[in-house]
Amino acid sequence: DAMVIQNPRYQVTQFGKPVTLSCSQTLNHNVMYWYQQKSSQAPKLLFHYYDKDFNNEADTPDNFQSRRPNTSFCFLDIRSPGLGDAAMYLCATSREGGSEAFFGQGTRLTVV
Amino acid sequence: GESVGLHLPTLSVQEGDNSIINCAYSNSASDYFIWYKQESGKGPQFIIDIRSNMDKRQGQRVTVLLNKTVKHLSLQIAATQPGDSAVYFCAEKGSGGYQKVTFGTGTKLQVIP
Predict the structure, then answer these.
(1) What is the C-alpha to C-alpha distance for residues A8 and A6, in angstroms, rounded to an integer?
(2) Is the CB of B106 inside 8 Å of chain A's CB atoms?
(3) pLDDT at B95
(4) What percent of chain A has pLDDT over 70?
(5) 3-state DSSP call for residue A68?
(6) How far apart are the first and last CA of chain A?
(7) Which of A44, A99, A105 minimises the CB distance to B34?
């Protein structure tokens, strides 16, 4: 059974048109992460939530925002997608103090 | 800035042989060092971790070694199988209440039947 679910699996958006990616979890973990992964590269952490506390990486562009309305759901908002934002976006969760992060299948974003 | 990185981008191994994937890290304050496996089109999957106060940890067909003196981490896979073909990433998790998980450069493991 999927524990971290990302929707949609594939998303095509127009240049400059806001887009939202969603993630839900059934693990009740208090930490949730968003990563950007480009081809043949390592996942790059954009931000993470520790409960409701939002932690933004210093080099995450302002174009990327996130919302976590409750424990189970987390959203990634890209306000004005550029061609360089085309990538796989991965959501993950972990419990506080644990080392294992559970990843969703990812959403592959294409910008046209 | 502090980072975690790998030496080899691609490793080809004959089926049945042992594989060794290496990683160098620079953040000595990390609490955990972790290996992930990522198959094509999927999210990373946790393989094994090692706490910073340990030198070695074994799992099923996998062993992780941590050398804090030279800041080196390795993943050994015994009797490599075709299903082991994937990209392997080392990662580290911060200490205390700092929950950030950051990834190093991946190594692609190709198993030759």
Answers:
(1) 6
(2) yes
(3) 63
(4) 98
(5) coil
(6) 33
(7) A99
DSSP string, B2-43: --EE-S-SEEEEETTS-EEEEEEE--TT-SEEEEEEE-TTS-
pLDDT tens digits, residue range A60-98? 999 999 999 999 999 999 999 999 999 999 999 998 878
Q: What 3-state class would DSSP assign to A72? A: coil
CA distances from B65 to A111, B27, B57 (A): 41, 16, 7
Residues 15-34 of chain A whose Cβ lies under 8 A from any Cβ of chain B: 31, 33
Nearest 5°: phi and psi at B82?
A: -55, -35
| Cβ contacts of B106 on chain A, cutoff 8 Å | 40-42
Shortest distance between the Cα of B13 and any Cα of chain A, in A, equals: 20
Which residue among B31, B43, B103 sits closest to A106, beta carbon to beta carbon? Answer: B43
Strands B10-14 and A4-7: unpaired
Q: Is the pLDDT of residue B4 over 70?
A: no
Measured in degrees and rounded to the nearest 5, phi and psi for residue A100 equal: -85, 125
* Residue B20 bridge partners (DSSP): B76
Mean pLDDT of chain A: 94
Rounded to whole angstroms, the Cα distance separating B5 from A91 reads 22
CB contacts under 8 A, B 30-89 vs A, are: 31-32, 34, 41-46, 49, 51, 89
